[in-house]
Amino acid sequence: MEWRVYNDGVAYRFVTALKGDIEVMSEDGTWQLATPAKLVLQQPGGFKTSCEENYSVVQSNEWKADDKMSELPILVMGEKQKVLISEFDLFDYAGVFLKSVGEGSNAFSIIQPKCPTEYEDDGDRKHKILKEADYVAKTQGTRTFPWRYMLITQTDGQLVESTMPVRLAPANAIGETDWIKVGQTCWDWLNGIPYGPDVTFKSGINLDTYKYFIDFAARNGVGYILIDEGWARNTRNPFETNPEVHLPEIIAYGKSKGVGVILWLPWLTVEHHMDLFEKFEEWGIKGTKIDFMDRQDQWMINFYERVAKEAAKHHIFVDFHGAFHPSGLDYKYPNVLTYEGVRGMEYNGSCKPDNTVWLPFIRNAVGPMDYTPGSMLNYQPERHHGNRPICAGVGTKAFNLAIFVLAESNLQMLMDNPCRYDQWPDCRDFLTSVPVNWDETRVLQAEAGQYCVVAKRKGDQWFIGGITNSTERNIDLKLDFLPAGKECRMTYFADGINADKIAMDYIRKQSRVSNTTVQPIHMVRNGGWCARIDLGK
Amino acid sequence: MKKPLFLAVLLLSSFAAFAQKQVKATSPDGQVQVTVTVSDRIYYDVESHGELLFKQSHIGMTLRDRTLGEKPALKGSKVTKVNETVTPIHPLKFSKVENSSPSPSAVATRWSGASITTAWPTASSQP
Question: Do A89 and A168 meet the contact criterion of CB atoms below 8 Å apart?
């Protein structure tokens, strides 16, 4: 066994040196809490899940053995300290779920899906599993097993700043990584019908629409456009494109403007056509979004790795949608840029700030998250209305701008329609200036599940993103992280005076600030606040 | 990418360790402690900042032909202090992660750790 004891947590793993292959029937990992605590769980109906459930808060001594299990990570909300439990360095093995040991036990233990051995296609994006092994994994006898870790914090902000995944990460297995360019991408799935005075063509899944997306991306320094379901004539065949789309022309047009193209695929099509990465490289495709895996058994864990490896060989990056929590694959294969496994904006009215406000403390603490932020149409929850192709975000406009700063992902979707960003050019310019990678992250004020205000630095720019749940907040922000004795320019977005009713109400202001500035911020219910500070200006 | 720097190595001789049923390791700042107890199975306690968080938590792994962690015996243990700098390829939070005082502000300060390695002979291979 190997243990690590950090200032902010503990991790252990099994290391075996056994001959040949071994069959792991089950793993015992039982956490016995010393004192009862609130647990923040994500409870699916079974092992097949896209890990998009709302968080549920359960008292540890009331969690029963036959209650729903939880996915990882889970958050233990002690009175004085918090513990985030998750797994890392997961390869050739099954993922972990946690189940109560019994009512009153204050204990929970590992439960894992068995390994499927016989299966058949069930539609274009699902396996029907016909037979499972009696083991959870059959694997090499000489190996290290995944880390089980407990991130322990005294303040909630430490959960957000945690670098535990970096410290437990496996080494890069693909060598040269300079070709992998992180960044933002335009995306058509939720808001794919441009309209307005500058749109003189019939919008839809067609050449003109994607040229319009590319033009927008090029004008705003956005590196990619993502074409979701519909670019192929048939979702099962990745080699034959929809004739309306004229993919070669789109790729060439994008290339001429410095914009790369990303294509969506259901995972089963990838499984049947692993050679598509070679073809995509030939076409000039930069990345893929691979969807609907929805499983964490050993077979599927290995699918993730096979894909990452094959894609890397052909210089293609991957966004795993319909995925589970990050568990190290993106460190071994840095061409894996992000994962869904989050209740994000595609949930529309069911993606609410009361749930979203947990994400920086739980989901993003374990790795990148494809939340797809950046909505320009904003509603308070009871007023929300929106569906494809006019999707809207719950929460105020300032909330929807701020979550773009907070949500960590190496590939960040601009979920709204380019034409709508152009209707709010100040918001557009702010959003498209937000980096996806950071030099430094500092939590200014935070309470898990309540609110979160974070400052992040990239080079000589600081960004601040703050969000609250359905409770309004007044917070005094000390900007003491700025360099001493220097005035800088701050541009900020705040909730408008009527944003508690009309969520699109916002204000934008500029001011001069220094490290002695105390900035009062007011966030209405489901509101937010965000800023950019330019050190050089 | 990783530059491990071994500051100190404390090796409990396997003979001395064999008699012990407990192995402890403490974080560099002394605030987090793990106690691994080897008895009928492998248990551990986690204490942080004076508060016991997990007690008698247990771990093991059942293979087809044996159970790791059942009637275990402590074969030996080694505590190693580790101090390394990690520069993630895609830095989501910090571009440098290391054990350091907070003065260079762009460095995450909570990286540093002690690791314990313990080995157990399975029942069948015990002397």
Answer: yes
What is the pTM (predicted TM-score) of this model?
A: 0.94
Report DSSP state, residue A178.
T
CB distance A338 to A224 below 8 Å: no
Q: CB-CB: which of B25, B56, B97 is closest to A167? A: B97
CB A167 to CB B51 under 8 A? no
What is the C-alpha radius of gyration for chain B, rounded to an integer number of angstroms? 18
Residue B96, domain extent: 2-125
Residue A29 neighbours by CB distance under 10 Å: 22
Instruction: Assess A142–B contact: CB distance below 8 Å, yes or no.
Output: no
* Domain range annotation of chain A: 2-168, 183-435
Q: Are B28 and A7 in contact (CB < 8 Å)?
A: yes
d(CA A436, CA A151): 24
Type of residue found at A147: W
- Residues forming a β-bridge with A22: A139
| CATH code linked to domain A2-168 | 2.70.98.10
Instruction: Give the integer Cα–Cα distance in Å for A38 and A302.
Output: 34
CA distance, residue A358 to nearest chain B CA (Å): 17
Check residue B116 and give its pLDDT: 59
- How many whole angstroms separate alpha carbon A323 and alpha carbon A288? 14
Residue B81, pLDDT score: 76
C-alpha A289: how far from chain center: 13
| CB-based contacts of A397, cutoff 8 Å, min separation 6 | A376, A378, A424, A427, A493, A495, A499, A503, A504, A505, A506
Mean pLDDT of B90-108: 60
Residue B5 has pLDDT above 90, yes or no: no
Tell me the pLDDT tens digit for each residue of A365-382: 999 999 999 999 999 999
Q: Please tell me whether residue A9 adopts helix, strand or coil conformation.
A: strand
- Predicted confidence band of residue B125 (pLDDT cuts 50, 70, 90): very low
8 A C-beta contact, residue A145 and residue A13: yes
Q: What is the pLDDT of residue B117?
A: 60
Residue A130 tokens read as 């016909």
Measured distance CA(A61)–CA(A59) in Å, rounded: 6
CA A152 → CA A10, A158, A326, B57, distances in Å? 8, 9, 19, 16
- B8 or A301, greater pLDDT: A301
CATH tag, A183-435: 3.20.20.70
Q: Looking up tokens 């190595």, which residue turns up?
A: B9
From chain B, pick out residues whose CB is under 8 angstroms from the CB of A15: 117
On whether any CB of chain A is under 8 Å from the CB of B48, the answer is: yes
Residue corresponding to tokens 């990056």: A317
Cβ(A108)–Cβ(A30) below 8 Å: yes
- In whole angstroms, give the CA distance from residue B124 to residue B102: 50
Residues in chain A where the model's pLDDT stays below 70: none
Q: Once rounded to an integer, what is the mean pLDDT over residues B78-101?
A: 78
B113: domain CATH number is 2.70.98.10
Q: Read out DSSP for A432-484?
A: TT--SS-SEEEEEEEETTTEEEEEEEETTEEEEEEEE-SS-EEEEEE-TTSPT
